[in-house]
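Encode chain A's predicted structure.
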Amino acid sequence: MTSTESRPTPNGHTLALLFASGLLLASCASASECDPNAVGNVLQSFGCNVGGGFDAHLEEQRTELAAVVEQTELTEAETARIEADAERYATDREAWQRKMQQLDAQLALLQLDVIQTEASNAEEEAMLQALREELDETQRRLSVAQAQTTPVDPAEITQLQTDIAERQKAISEILETIVAE
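Encoded structure for chain A:
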């Protein structure tokens, strides 16, 4: 073209055709391309508006938001359950510790009873041994008195027999006490 030649001016049909082509291209934009904060030109914006891209993008955002809200609610519910479990475990642990302290105190009392019983039994065993020795001595003296060829005072024999009976009774009582414990 020469400088004297003029360019053809677009007529109404050409403009309409260009506009329609722009709309067609702009309306083909996907929902992800129709982010109202990222649309770069008027034709794309117009195409997104006419083609429903803005609405589709908005619906995608709402769906994502609903998923996030649902996940948050599930997470909050799980957190509440975990906190309730932790509180229950803490309460159970405190109750268990109190029970263990009670059992420890009972065990200490039982051990004290055993020590006292052992001491008491030791005392009773010592008394029992002393009585047995006295009984043996009294029976020995009775046997000696009965074996003597010289006359023995019947009162002395009766006294020895009474001593033996008393010591046997005392031994029986101590044995009953030991068995009862």
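The mean pLDDT is 78.
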